[in-house]
Amino acid sequence: MNFIEDAIFPTDISDGSLGGPGFKTNVRVYGSGYESRRVRWPYPRHAYNVAYGVKTAQQMQSLINFYTAMDGKGYGFRYVDPLDNSTSPMQGAAPTGDDVVLVNGDGDGTSVVQLFKPSTEGSRTTFRPIKKPVDNANFAVNVDASPVGYTMDFTTGILTLTVPLVLGQVLSWGGNYHVPCRFDTDQLQITLQGPLIGNTNIGVVEIFT
Questions:
Q1: Phi, psi dihedral angles at 53 (to 5 degrees)
Q2: Residue 33: its pLDDT value, please?
Q3: How far apart are CA 50 and CA 29, in angstroms?
Q4: Which of 25, 130, 135, 170 is in Cβ range 3.0-4.6 Å of 115 for a Cys bridge?
Q5: In terms of Cα–Cα distance, which of 205, 155, 183 is closest to 66?
Q6: What is the pTM assigned to this prediction?
Q7: What dihedral angle (degrees, nearest 10) is formed by the CA atoms of 78, 145, 165, 99?
């Protein structure tokens, strides 16, 4: 996959952009009025309109440069969603190694795990894989609430423990993460229109990896 790991979409633009998670669902409505639904995506795909974040000529120039460097839709990049970038259950609070339980040791010697973040309401939980964790001081991995040895692939979200889990041990993690994205347009139409400079719709979409 064409992805530039060290390319991060300008955060001063993403902070003011419009967007969030979405699903693809087939809905069939019968003559009786009853319906059936089939959710096609196993977890949400995020999409953003970054035009809302462009307020100045300097920001537009930054966007044009980034778009050109990514060859439009050609290359993926990391996107910082201001409302969805941390495992912490409290907005603005620092993540901890106990935020997300990944697995309970079942005696099979589990040592390799894909990072994920759950969303739970009542008895329903959706598990969203985290493919682009951030390598910073907030990243932590615990077993039974204590730090452990591990190696982390920050390009895939694959965690490998130095010592496999034993029966009953609880593996958890916490940290920041980015959304793997690409542009969703092959053309930027750039004009000067009062306070908003450029397109009114510049799409950025999450890449399922």
A1: -90, -5
A2: 94
A3: 35
A4: 130
A5: 183
A6: 0.91
A7: -30
